[in-house]
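Recall the central idea of this unit: under ordinary conditions, the amino acid sequence of a chain determines the structure it adopts. In this exercise we apply that idea directly, starting from the sequence alone.
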Amino acid sequence: MRLNEIVGSGSNQSLFESNPVIVTFQGNAEDLVISAPVIRNLDSGDKFNQMPNIIVKTKSGNAISAKVDVLKQEGLFPSGNVLNDLAEYNASGAAASVSKFAATTVASSVAVAPAGNAKANKGKVVVQGENVAEQQLQYWFQQADKETQTRFLNWAKSHK
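Accordingly, the structure predicted from this sequence is:
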């Protein structure tokens, strides 16, 4: 998982994106709530990257024991190798590793995209009561010039 927050205010806003965080826990039949601290500025984001604080609880409020670690990534496009990085991490025996996931390969983990303009069925991702996708869309929309905003709005209207 990654923590994404818009930090700062006014014209000094920027997008903080955490390093990838690995959280392992033993699930049960009850819905779970995964929470992280609110990142208000880049300093608190840097602190989170150094020592991520993730809390896992059941929907009824019971704490679930969890192991948390940061996935180290390297290269020009570090997110491009996330499946291989996860497999290597799980093979390493690190704090939050799961050894039976160590053999995961890119080929066995690739999802097939729907054909044509069909929409994939996706659940809504809500972190601490906020719709992350909506927050990111708003941020990037505000960063775009007027022409790009207009093109985006036309695209969005045609894809309802």
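The chain has three domains: 1-70, 74-108, 130-160.
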